[in-house]
Amino acid sequence: xxxxxxxxxxxxxxxxxxxxxxxxxxxxxxxxxxxxxxxxxxxxxxxxxxxxxxxxxxxxxxxxxxxxxxxxxxxxxxxxxxxxxxxxxxxxxxxxxxxxxxxxxxxxxxxxxxxxxxxxxxxxxxxxxxxxxxxxxxxxxxxxxxxxxxxxxxxxxxxxxxxxxxxxxxxxxxxxxxxxxxxxxxxxxxxxxxxxxxxxxxxxxxx
Length: 207
Description:
Strand content: under 5%
Oligomer: single chain
Structural class: mainly alpha
Largest sheet: none
């Protein structure tokens, strides 16, 4: 007997196979590099689409992935969520980062750092400072120079409301010589420019 094959089914099956192939491709070191390149070249929308779909496959379709690869994907995911201003999603991913870091025996620097960054953009500055200080303490405990720099820089950003509210100066932001030197050392020149322009002589009567 002839078997009826609906066009709609054929299209759906074709899309499902393409979907499975793409997900399988991204569940590799090469796939990770592709998504990372999207992030590095600021194609956040495409990266966000892929990371959301990838995460759904892990959570709901039991996609097998090593904890280490999942952790690396989560670190990309939270960065992109923040850049896409999906801050509730960023906090959700932070919790996944915390759980996965615990399984891998990693420290809590990334969790505290990205929660701090997310709270900064939510304008919850007091909470953000607390998490940034936690990140700094952890970096100091393992003598992680770059981590200490990142936490110090984030602390300064939080005090300046994430560079968003630079003309509303409620306090005199203290910028250490250490941070200035590290901004130069790590070639964070855009941040250095913000610091030079907005973090000096920033009293309300001067600005």
